[in-house]
Design a protein that fits this description.
Number of helices: 3
Oligomer: single chain
Protein name: DUF3606 domain-containing protein
Structural class: mainly alpha
Largest sheet: none
Order of helices and strands: HHH
Pfam families: DUF3606
Radius of gyration: 12 Å
Strand content: under 5%
């Protein structure tokens, strides 16, 4: 059974939008890194959360 429409949030997505403050703050807290580290990794590897986490040495 899938997640009902409208019940998903940004944590269910595979992409990170660094312009969305709530997304960046969530991953900062989850990974224990700074905004600058997330933005630098985003610039280097793209917007995939998996790739950003790998670049930072973290797991999703």
């Amino acid at each position: 059974m899938g997640v009902p429409k409208g019940k998903r949030d940004f944590r269910d997505e595979d992409r990170l939008d660094p312009r969305e403050r709530h997304q960046v703050e969530y991953w900062m807290k989850r990974w224990g890194v700074t905004k600058d580290q997330i933005v630098a990794a985003h610039r280097k590897v793209g917007n995939s959360i998996k790739d950003i986490g790998t670049e930072l040495g973290k797991k999703r």
